Amino acid sequence: MAFIDDVLQQPSYGWKTGNGTLVKPDSKRLWREALNRMNIFSSKKNWISFSSLMMIVCLLPFLYAFLFHYFSWKLLLAFLVYAMIFMGTHGTIWFHRYCTHKAFRFSHPLWRVLTQNLVIKTLAEEIYVVSHHVHHSKSDEPGDPYNAQAGFLYCMLAEFNHQRISTDLSKEDYQKVLHFMNHTGVKANTYNQYKKWASVASPFYTVSVWFLNWTFWFAAFYLIGGLGLVCALFSAALFWFVLVRAFNYTGHGKGEKKHVEGVDFDRSNLSVNQLRPGLFAGEWHNNHHLYPGSARAGFLSYQLDLPWIYIYTLYKLGAVSSYRDSKQDFLRKYMAKQEAVRI
């Protein structure tokens, strides 16, 4: 477990106390840590946290223009659908099931690039992928980068405070990090470049991808609906980018045991299946913790899984070459057992 324990940059307040209990820093300490991590002037190794801050700053003018110049109920509906369904579903497909868990494979890199850029780009892949592997290894334990038991703000600021890779990985451990990332298509730094930037991706690559993605979607939305639609949907991307950080707080019962009998079958952690994230983005989170490598997480009849529909459609079209689907195993192990108990 040494690699998983050390792969993320430990916050100044640490993961756990001397007796092994979770450190729960107050809001002042959390904000101080975040500001230190964003400070590009103190160290260029802070560039990836600084870029997330700049992402928010660059999206704010769109939000202002949407609210005060282009607002309409029609555009508000487009805002909500894009933020909650398009951005959410894409996050599950790309960051969660493909980049982190390799639950399916593309038949050609072109389909990977198209899937990566299906929506307005916000989050850098390495911020999500590496820390999410740690999350699954240490769910709801000290070291879980977004441990809901430490509170709402602990999760909201996790991208800055807990999800960056360590700045002093050995060459061997950096190769292990690259193993998490190689299939994503992200152009990776050499070990010497990593020592300079403390990241898998270089600033130039990251900014270039964002610029090209934003340019395409700005032009596409402008041609479809003018500046009003541009401002509404770029605002929606901001809405998702900020509030997705709250998901692991609510998705893990706000740090409390809130499992529902017949709904949440994995009791090894605090994850729960929620209707809104499940129906809108395929995030049936307890199911996912039960079968993290599955391309489908909607196992019960009412559990709509939009990401799975996308993946399976691409499979039928030949764009996805293979996938893993754990639904039948779930039904055999859990639902059949439940039916036997009722009888």
What does this structure look like?
A two-stranded antiparallel ribbon has the order 1-2. Helix 3 packs across helix 11 and helix 4 (73-100) packs across helix 6. The protein is mainly α. The protein has 16 helices and two strands. The N and C termini lie far apart (43 Å). The protein is globular. It has one domain (2-342). The chain is 59% helix and 2% strand. The protein has helices at 2-6, 27-38, 47-68, 73-100, 109-116, 125-137, 152-156, 158-161, 171-181, 191-197, 203-243, 247-250, 275-281, 285-290, 306-317, 327-342; strands at residues 104-106, 320-323.
Can I get a quick summary?
The chain has 343 residues and is an all-alpha fold. The protein has helices at residues 2-6, 27-38, 47-68, 73-100, 109-116, 125-137, 152-156, 158-161, 171-181, 191-197, 203-243, 247-250, 275-281, 285-290, 306-317, 327-342; strands at residues 104-106, 320-323.
Question: Biggest β-sheet, characterized?
Answer: 2 strands, antiparallel
User: How many DSSP H or I helices?
Assistant: 16
The multimeric state of the shown protein is: single chain
Low-confidence stretches: none
Task: Report the radius of gyration as a whole number of Å.
Answer: 20 Å
- Order of strands in the sheet with most strands: 1-2
- Gap between N and C termini: 43 Å
* Mean pLDDT over the full residue set: 94
Q: In sequence order, what are the helices and strands, one letter per element?
A: HHHHEHHHHHHHHHHHEH
Q: Kindly estimate the percentage of residues that lie in beta strands according to DSSP.
A: under 5%
Number of domains: 1
Helix content: 55-70%
Instruction: Give the class from helix and strand content and strand pairing.
Output: mainly alpha
Give the strand tally: 2
Silhouette: globular
